[in-house]
Specification:
The chain crosses the membrane at residues 12-38, 50-71, 83-104, 110-131, 292-318, 330-350, 362-381, 387-408, 428-445, 457-476. Pfam families: Polysacc_synt_3. Belongs to the polysaccharide synthase family. Its main location: membrane. 83% of the residues lie in helices and 0% in strands. By secondary structure, it is an all-alpha fold. The chain has one domain (2-430, 476-494). Helix 11 (248-261) crosses helix 14 (330-337) and helix 14 runs parallel beside helix 17. The two termini are 23 Å apart.
Amino acid sequence: MIVAGSSALARKAVLGAVWTIATGLGSRVLGLIGTLVLTRFIAPDVYGEVSAASVVIMTAHFMSSLGTGQFIASRPNLDRQMVFNATVYFHVAGLIAIAAVYLFREPIAVHLVGAPGMLEFMPGLILAMFIDRIWYVPDRLLIREMRFRSVSLRNAAGELTYTAASVSLAVLGWGGNAIVVATLLRAVVRVVTTVPAVKLSEWLTPSPLSREKARELFAFGIPLNFGSLANFGASKWDNLVMIRLFGEQVGGLYNLAWNLADIPASQVGERIGDVLVPSFAKLEPEQRKAALVRALTLLALIIFPLAVGLGAVAPTILNDTFFNEAWEPAGPLLAVLSALGVTRPIGWVLSSYMQVYGRTRTIMVLEWLKVAAIVGGIALLGTIGGVLWACAGVGVAFGVHALASLWVVKRADGVPYMRLLRPLVRPLVACMPMVAAVLAVRYGMRSLDDLPRGCRLGAEVVVGGLAFVASALVIARQASRDFLQLAREAVRRRR
């Protein structure tokens, strides 16, 4: 009975991962195309200022989230009073955070970040944050019920709205405000499509505020919230440090390179993490170790070729697509930053595993270790060697976080290092023929002139992808078979 339940849950989790990854990647591809168009109408320094304003406001959002989303998603048996209490605390904290950012926006922009131009964009982004928080609790309730298809489609609708609006307004000459208005519209679409999907009685049934329930929420959520804040800071605060060290223009180039390099981690690794939390929670404790090893194996098979391949084609992306000359210096930054796609998702899976056991304080410590490593690495290496060395410091920091997370799981649950690391080796080795194939295509096409934009990149991607599939079936045979079997079972179950 347990085995059958585990198999059914695995199929549901895989199907959920397929939906979240497919829709996430689809919307991300369109978003990437939109970014390519935006770069032709928005200068790097303006892009850097909008990004800095967004980072500051999103920091306020994470600081005031109280771990509510993770608490709801990982507790399938919460009563309505608990959900209502959590909702009230979440929104009260959000209003306080919004007011604080608005009142202190000038000191933050001028003195802390050193980018006065971001003041123009902060009010609109603050309003977007206010609207977006209305969507958050219903979205977490849908995730708790493992309605991944519904969540994925609604999130994709918001991202598509953002892409279409930002591109259209940028073409019309709105500059950085095109991004602000698009962010507002995305928030509205999320609210309009998600809130009606959940009965109001599930989260807005008026109930007394309980001190006991507040203690339960805060004991679980606040340490995890600090961990989530640190995770956000690890992916965004480096933008502020880069602007502070090298100015808004370099900050804009770095932000673009980061967004491209982060696609494998954020659109695949984090989506898998969203699926794993409720999936691990529904497994028996003795089954979770095997599930962790299996998740890491499949993650490596999916993520590693995306990250390594992105680094291999980085020079071609910036020289053979829609980017104008002002953005071409971001190419070397992208090549260096792509390394984070290999190590960052490992930390996500291990964090999902520890979260189910309630080790929120451990997660918090690990996340802040990562933040310190990133900020310190950028500041130290950037001061010594410049921008590329600062980018290298980011990849090293994510590697340190992944190794520290592995050590914690070994110490707490007795899972040997090699049992967790061994499944990662073969998928990584299978990426080497892919890199060789990409370089061979680039060398072979050097003498070809006057090719349409995108042809060189398309050839490198197609040949590199085929090379990885062939090498993975030979070098990572067991992992490939496992992935194909799970995919077939998920499709069969869906039919």
